[in-house]
Amino acid sequence: MRFPVLVAALSAALLMSACASRVDLPTRNTLPAVRMQSSAIAPGNGGELITATALEPGDILLTSVATLTSFSIRLGSFAPVSHAVLYLGNGRIAEAVGSGVRARGLDEVIAEEQMVVAFRVPGLDAAHVERMRAWALSKVDTPYNTVGVMLNAPFVLNRRMCELPLVPSPVSNFCMTGMATVQLGASRNDQFFCSQFVLEAYNQAGAPITTADPRWVSPADLLHMREGDVPSIPATQPLRYVGHLKYNPMPVITADGATSR
Question: What InterPro entries does its record include (predicted)?
Fold first, then answer.
């Protein structure tokens, strides 16, 4: 197969599978390679189960639950997570949900969700944590950014055109920025959906995770900012995997009607 045809076929496949990619240039000892975004997140894929004692204030928890809304978000973003939560320390979290921003116990999150996986932003210090906690608690009862969520869903799909393989990073970033300006311009930044709230908390703490507008970022984008993955939206530094607080995959219905995990 000729190289242009191969590139076209690979581009079509990646677009259909909604996978961002990165081209690693050749070195003296390696050939060029295309790395693809990964949604693998089960503990069996190099992960581990942990307890809450392993968490530190500022950790980001990504979750999923067996509801139609969660399934729709995961299907639309091609990722196994649908919600983002900020850990405040002392067994407390803050999150933006349909009823608005709220603070509650970590144990409630673990009890409700099917999967809870923790990531850490390197370099966070006590001053960052205190500013983050103070800002997050000051936003309790702030309304949910419903318009932002509704606009973000088609943006996640449409921006895949900017992520085709072999597209230079400056071109890809320009494409995504232009698309976001057009599609997300009506979204408010004084109300929050889950991942927007987490990123804004980091901004307010003086430790931004990304230079992108928080309204652009979904829970799936946070997942792909982890070490070893290919982010759709660049991070200032990769997030470190801490572990799974809970992993309870949905049962799969087999051909004979039985269920398995």
Answer: Papain-like_cys_pep_sf
Whether the predicted model's global pTM rises above the 0.85 cut: no
Catalytic site residue from 83, 128, 224, 244: 244
Question: Are the C-beta atoms of residues 225 and 241 closer than 8 Å to each other?
Answer: no
Structure token pair of residue 66: 């067996």
Taking phi over 0 as left and psi of -120 to 50 as alpha, with beta for the rest, 166 belongs to left
Place of tokens 């942990």: 50
Catalytic annotation, pick one of 83, 128, 162, 194: 194
Using DSSP's 3-state secondary structure scheme, residue 61 falls into strand
Is 60:220 a contact under the CB 8 Å cutoff? no
Give CA–CA dist 124/210, Å, rounded: 14
| Residue 174 phi, psi dihedral angles, 5° rounding | -65, -40
Partners of 252 in beta bridges: 260
Query: Hey, is 151 helix, strand or coil?
Result: helix
Specify whether the CB–CB gap between 9 and 17 falls below 8 A. no
Residue range 41-62, pLDDT digits in tens: 766 566 789 999 999 999 999 9
Instruction: Determine whether 194 is an active site residue.
Output: yes
The DSSP call for residue 165 is T
**233 vs 197: which has the higher pLDDT:** 197
